[in-house]
Amino acid sequence: MRSWTDLGSLLAFRAAGLRGRARRVVPGALALLACLTVAAAVVPAHLPEQSLGRADARAALPSLLLSLLVVAVLSAAASGGGRELLPHEQGVAFPVGATTDHLGALLLAPLNIAWLLQAWAALAATSYVAGPGGHLLAAVAVPTAWLLAATACAQAVGWAVEWVRRGPRGVLAVRLAGLLAAAGAVALLVTGTLADVLRAAPTEAVARAADAGAHGRWGPWALTTATLLALAVAAVAVGARLAGRVARRPAREELRAETAVRPARPDPASDLLALLRTDRAGIWRSVPMRRGAFVLAVLPGLVALGGSFGWDSLGVLPALVASGGALLFGVNAWCLDGRGALWRESLPVSPALTFVSRAVVLGEVLLGSSVLTLVLASLRAGVPTASQAVAVLCAMVVVVVQVVATALTWSVRHPSAVHLRSARATPAPPLVMVGYSARLAVATTFTGLTFDLAGGLSWVWPLLLAAPYLLWSGLKLRRTARAWAAPVTRARVVVTVAS
Amino acid sequence: MSAAPCPAVDVSGLRVRFGSVEAVAGIDLRVAPGTATALLGRNGAGKSTTMRVLAGVVPPTEGRVLVAGHDVRTETLAVRHETGYCPDVGGLVPRATPWEHLQLSARLRRMPAGWQDRARELLDRFELGGARNRVTAGFSHGMGRRMSVVLAAFHRPPVLLLDEPFDGVDPLGVEATLEVVADARAAGAAVLVSTHLRELAVEACQQAVVLRGGAAVARTSAADLAGEDGAGAYRALLD
Hints:
heterodimer; A: mainly alpha; 2 domains; 21 helices; about 75% helix; B: about 240 residues; alpha/beta; Rossmann fold; six-stranded mixed beta sheet; 8 helices; about 25% strand; globular
């Protein structure tokens, strides 16, 4: 009970910290998310049968529910147990218990665009399957209970993974487990046994219970819903215990990285190389950023590899990877300097060069991840036509430049003081991250799809299509570089990130 | 009769506003080469903002600010070449090592070959030689402060700006910082030290300027603020 009270206090503390425009935007954004969720659960039921029939939606429902669990587990495990309601640096002065921390992470779990999209898809599919004549409320209650249970279980798994990772040889154990899981998933996809596994998955029972609710068969409906709710409660309790265990173990990998000895290298040969070296250190010496870049590069590639994506649909992959990569640090790129930002700003170097350096390192991360993803995806995609190859390459370059331009614009406009020492930290507040990720995903997916379409034409078309995109992003970059060059703007950014 | 030396720091009517908040409300300040001046005052008096303006990090909203003869508004890069700045918070890039900080500074400041000897000497003086290749994220607060002083003094700047250099620093680090200030003065540099530690300010500096509410309320010899009488006089200036 004490933890729930503390959670309320922390929420009130965060709400009180909202200033100016954020005070108006945050309630509006939360209301919008709630409206979209209700709409996803209600509107599809009243739609007439589409080309994707109700039977097709019913067949896809177990996979959608299972995907949500996978997304929730990956998010919780990759973020070291889940997001922090109160950043560690701010929370040290308060006696925030592990259970409160766990409840806060659970509360923040849905503020993740991947989770939201899966949840909306599952609710919409259930609603569509139930149709206008069914008991809609009863039908959607089942996937709602599943959302609660899956998220709570995923959170507990996230803490368990973090507990193992912090133990002796934990990093190795987690990496091996991750590799085995990825290999298993690929094997299922390659051998064509995924459909059988999905049919045997417990989510089929959840989908059947939703059917039962829609048709008024209350016995199986009540039993499944109650079981899911009980599972959610149990998972919350188990997660709280695991969070307590995690809190008692030091974060070895992060501590090792923070105290590591790095042998001196030769002096840099130019100003730009000197700046790049410092900026790259900020990324590649950070455990959460290294891990995030690796996961982003490998996971979509493995999915594409297993799913045998053709070259005609690979253009969307760099779009997903680049927009995800920007969320690691790019949307608040100056925070890499942390409290050293004031000292760096006192060095005699042109602001244009520091801007170029930051754009280059962000571009490198996005491009490197995209290339790795495409290499993995291309292994089973066959031989592309010249047009398809050009289209995919153009898509990759265009989305990387597009994302760099957008992320740096946000970095200059809305800097935040975050130190990104822990995997649980995000470069911007959680709700802002939802907005960023949604906007990046929509823009880059659209770009990727246009190149997939252009790949079906002559090889000249993707090149012609790339030109206006690059011009637009180039102009955006130039505008942001000019904003950064203004001393008042730069002082605001630097003082904010160093605070 | 010889003319008074041209001040290395010449500030008149400095104002800095952040939105509706006026952090500095009309400060006049002059620091001659070869002298050290203490900036004293309570939290929020405008000390750190003044230092940031002098370092070319924050632009002035109003007023004229000349550092080593350069206007901070129009010749910001020249000002940064001539100053060495130890910021009040942090001051170190978290995932870079001390040596990498020094390499970056040497490169951007166009320091001649042989800068490594000066770097090693300073690191040893501040007992950071053994940690020169360690990532600074794991440094204690005191180590971070000492390293910030090293970075500020490294290129022997004509204007040395030390904001809270003694904060959380052990006695040996304090001693090394006092030596750096003395060496800089002896080499003809103008030194500004912002601190809450009155006794150390008296030890390091000849002049003192007391700020209150963003404006200077007293300019005095640092010796006047020494001892119990000085403490009483200083206390009276804070309210």
